[in-house]
Amino acid sequence: MIYEMRTYDIKPRSLAEVEKRFGEAYEKRKKYSELGAFFHTEIGPLNQIIHIWPYKDMEERTKIRTAAVNDKVWPPPISEFLVTMRSEIFMPFDVSPPMKPAKLGPYYEMRTYTHKAGDLPKLRAVWEKAVPERLKFSPLTAAWYSELGSLNKFVHIWPYPSLDARNETRAKTQAAGVWPPSADKMGLPGYELVHQENKIVMPSAFSPLQ
Torsion over CA of 17, 20, 22 and 23, rounded to 10 degrees? Predict the structure, then answer.
């Protein structure tokens, strides 16, 4: 399974119209394949939409996208509102659950870490050992590493019913000593992070993940 994450920066005050047009176009596009999620940013970089598409592999992605474009049902008519567009392909860690329709939010914390080149195996070993203990406190939506696009990136997404619940959960995990992951405590080789980003996103009305 691969996940294509498309991140678009849009013009200020255009979100309502962008989501309206995207949602209308998606009604035809989803017969080819369904969205994993559609988010807009609430805290962090504003005026941003993020749509995530699961595919079996790159061959399936190409086949589906080509069919939707040839049938003139895609892309949605939102080009007049677009400022920048970015597409990245991510692969899931073993501890990452499949992205499927669910009501887990509506607040999703999306954390993007850039790790030192070559450190992915070390990061993966630490996180796959740490996540099971973290899941005792709240669920995980995704733990992915980049395959195409921006390299050396690790994205993890956590759902919360409220921002207060996020703060309370993080405080509990830190107090319990299970978070953030510690390579030293596990006796594993450490990895180096060179950049971190964080944002709170919320789903659109048509997003399968709420």
Answer: 170
